[in-house]
Design a protein that fits this description.
Elements (H helix, E strand, L loop, with lengths): L3 E8 L3 E3 L12 H11 L2 E7 H14 L7 H12 L1 E5 L11 E4 L3 H10 L4 E5 L2 H9 L5 E7 L7 E2 L10 E8 L5 E7 L1
Length: about 190
Amino acid sequence: MRKLILFMHVSIDGYVTGPTGAMDFVQVDDQMFEYAGKQTDQADIALYGRVTYEMMDEYWPNAGHQPGASKHDIEHSAWYNSVEKLVASRTLSNNSKPLTRFIGENIETEIRDLKSRPGKNIVMFGSPGLAKTMMRADLIDEYWLFVNPIIRGDGNALFEPGLPQIKLTLTKTERFPSGVVMLHYNRQ
């Protein structure tokens, strides 16, 4: 059975973007890329909200073929181009891009169905609005939170009033050279 795994950068106070959607506080390093790459190798579906998908699809299809592409760019671009992309959007549809499918309605039902099928995991990068939808439906099996060393004070919060209580077990922590601390939780 597949798992839905959320990868999300957050500030110490739980914000995933600034008030205008900027992610300028997010810190990354090569060790983090290596770590995340091992996890994406275990997935054959990438789940995105519309905004995150548009950002990812602007960069990743050709990133590995650019002059001076990093090891991470080459590897993640190859992965991105080989997996199914499932995009939750009420405004995008009828895409001609390979391995890309848009779902405007019944996303929770679609994810439940995908999780019941054999295959590798489903990973969700960012997509805070979709993440909240998945939390409300209790569909996220693992939370990989990359806590950045900053207190934002405002922006788009990952956790907000009205979300259900979800009991988690901390299974691993990792500190990266950038100062980011990864907290890996499994749903109980």
